[in-house]
Amino acid sequence: MSTFMDRKSEPQSLKLTNVSSELFMLILHLRATEDFGDEARLRQKIKELIDSWRRKCQRAEIETQDVETAQFALIAFLDETIITSDWAEQNTWMASPLQMEYYSRFDAGEEFFTRLEDLRQRPKSHTSVLEIYYLCMAMGFEGKYQLHDKEKLRWVIEDTYNELREVLSISVGKLSPHGRPRDEIVEAVKTDIPLWVIGVVSAGFCIFVYVILNFIINGKADNLINLINQHI
Q1: Among 33, 123, 133, 32, which residue's Cα sits nearest to residue 76?
Q2: Contact 123, 130 (CB under 8 A)
Q3: Which CATH number is 11-229 given?
Q4: Whole-model pTM?
């Protein structure tokens, strides 16, 4: 399968991002609607999706430690997305979030950044996971910065992007498998996806678009846009 980026990092970085695309699509869907349906059913569906994600990671031969660290970020982002929503059963979820079920803790919003800092100490060794943490922040995760220090969060995102840029050697210039120029694809994505999705720090936009373009390349873009358009 071809991709639109030339990268000199380990192949596992691309694998983990691709494998995680469905979870990111779910988060985009949740952020675009206020009614998540029945709480028990939502919880079960998310757990099934996480189990499926773990199996895909195993088949892709992604290191177990990378899977565990990435899972923490994704669960923290899922919890925050649900808890900060206007969903009628938000308080029920808040009383028993996924982080409590998986990790017996309520401080994932703070622990996320502790783990991020550890990853940033060794970006070349943990590029794949660092990319997941970056994408969570670029797509709206705030954690401990939710109520204050928003400016500091912006710098954390930009610094993480710069560290990834040094490792990944990103070159956005190839055509999609269907021959659509990159600029045309980006414009289509910007047109179809709500503005809040595009409202990430400017320095990190190309990595964010990387995930969206991978949905297109993998034939998942229609699913993503349909999910969002059903609820906006």
Answers
A1: 133
A2: yes
A3: 1.25.40.590
A4: 0.73
